[in-house]
Amino acid sequence: MSTAYVPAPPQPRHAHPVRGVQASVLLERFFVSGVAAVLLIRGWLGLTGYPQIGGDGLHVAHMLFGGIGMLIALLAGFAFIGSHVRGFAAIVGGAGFGAFIDELGKFITSDNNYFYQPAVAMIYVVFILIFIAGERLTTDSHPTPDERLAQALDVISGSVIDGYPKRERDLAMELLSQADPNNPLAPALRRALAQIAATPEPEEEFPGRLASRIASSYTWLVGQRWFLTLVLSIAVLATIFSLRSLSITILADPDDNRLQAYLDSTAGLLLVANLIFGALLIAGLIRLRHSLLAAFQWFRRAVLVSLLVAQPLAFYEQQWAALFGLAFNLVLLSALEFGITRETGPAGQSATTRS
């Protein structure tokens, strides 16, 4: 009795790590929980008068609890598989990292100064670097067929644990459709998944429904052209008013010593950053008559200058009062990213250039 010959799968053609399908969601949870941990810890300590855990010369820093949180996240990732475990590890690990980095002032000062003024700005820079690195890590613009097959296997393993929900099965089938058809695993997995009855998606609990509703409302809002126009107008007006007092001082007395002191301070550097921000906004407004996409890209450059240059200076100068400016910049960046995506899509390409 002869048996059918099944060819061996081809050797992998790459040695670099394969990005996970959930990478962007998990990194987002890590980032949000880390930022939330810093804000909650600082807020709670401020409201309670900065209490200390310990006594008789002992002080248990909350950095220790942050380390425990990161350890729990690592152990969970090592010991278990599945999307729920990864989500748990991302949230707990992010909160642990937030509690850890919140004590940055103690790490870099000889007197363990938690209130070291530049610490807030440095914490902000750390999270911005995490955000940028996360964006680069999760950008999977040219996945290979072998990578798609590996991602499909990862999704299928989670689907087995969750009882084959329809959403995960459909995602696995979509990934397998982009895998190498000459690899015998791909058609075999497609046939196997097609024979399995998918379970209906469980009804979301109230926190999940609320989060989904907020996310969909936010997506709708930033996608509205009038909202982008409103936010850009506010940005232009804010830049004008930030330069107003300095202009009055220069016109009144160009040799005023206060002017030199201002320019030599952090506020002076912040002024230069705002000038660059305003110049890039003006460049975008000039391009607006000819190309909406080009204008959006100039506006995006302006926001990135504000986030990467102006905001660290603002946090150094104003401490946590700079959170409002950060939130405004993030909303503006989201609206611009949405607009750029829409303009570069099939429907927007024909209408991007206007005479």
SSE blueprint and pairings:
Blueprint: H1 23-48, H2 62-79, H3 83-101, H4 104-107, H5 118-138, H6 145-162, H7 166-177, H8 185-194, H9 206-222, H10 225-252, H11 257-264, H12 266-287, H13 292-318, H14 323-344, H15 346-349
What does this protein structure show overall?
By secondary structure, this protein is mostly helical. The chain folds into 3 domains: 23-138, no CATH class; 145-194; 221-349, no CATH class. Helix content is 72%, strand content 0%. The chain is built from 15 helices and no strands. The chain has helices spanning 23-48, 62-79, 83-101, 104-107, 118-138, 145-162, 166-177, 185-194, 206-222, 225-252, 257-264, 266-287, 292-318, 323-344, 346-349. Helix 7 runs antiparallel to helix 8, helix 10 packs across helix 14 and helix 11 crosses helix 12 (266-287). The longest helix has 28 residues, at 225-252. 23% of the residues are buried. The model is unreliable at 347-355 (pLDDT under 50).
Low-confidence sequence ranges: 347-355
How many strands appear in the DSSP assignment? 0
Main beta sheet: none
**Beta-strand percent range:** under 5%
Shape: globular
* Domain module tally: 3
Structural class: mainly alpha
| CA-based gyration radius | 26 Å
Mean pLDDT: 79
**Order of helix and strand elements from N to C terminus:** HHHHHHHHHHHHHHH
Rounded to the nearest angstrom, the distance between the terminal CA atoms is 75 Å
Helix content: over 70%
Number of helices: 15
